[in-house]
Amino acid sequence: MEFNATFIAAIVSFVIFILIMNQIYYKPISNIINDRKKLIDDNYKAAMNFKKKSDSIYTEKDERLNETTKQSKEIINTKVNEAHNKSIEMTDDAKKHFTDETDKAKNNLLTEEQNINQVLSENIDELAGHISSKILGDNV
Q1: Which residues of the chain have pLDDT under 70?
Q2: What's the rounded Cα separation, in Å, for the pair 113 and 124?
């Protein structure tokens, strides 16, 4: 094969064509591809960050919800226990009041009974004296 000036001119012209195409076509396309890849990577990283944030917010929400549920159950249990204790206290107070009133009524009845017995005893003594004076006074 023969190498002549036309062949060398074709090779030089092909190399110049490749350099020009590289500057005009390949570099801009390569830059566009790299920019798009960078944009996609940045968007992917941002999406992952948002996903991590949303996961942490979701976890925090669950923790707060569980804590609030726990606190509300504690409050309800406390209030139920307080109400139960208050009802027991009120029942005990009512029983004590009833017992006190019953004892007071019994004491009043006993006092009245003693007063009545004393009055009856005095009346019986007086009647006995009166009857004996009539019996003795009529017979005498």
Answers
A1: 1-3, 138-140
A2: 16
pLDDT in tens, 120-136: 888 888 888 888 888 87
Tokens 């029983």, located at residue: 95
Give counts: helices (H), strands (E), the chain. 2, 0
* Of 56, 76, 75, nearest in space to 64 by CA: 56
Rg (CA), the chain: 58
pTM exceeds 0.85 for this model: no
- Interatomic CA distance for residues 131 and 127, integer angstroms: 6
Short-list 84, 86, 88, CA closest to 76: 84
Rounded to an integer, what distance in angstroms lies between the CA atom of residue 124 and that of residue 76? 70
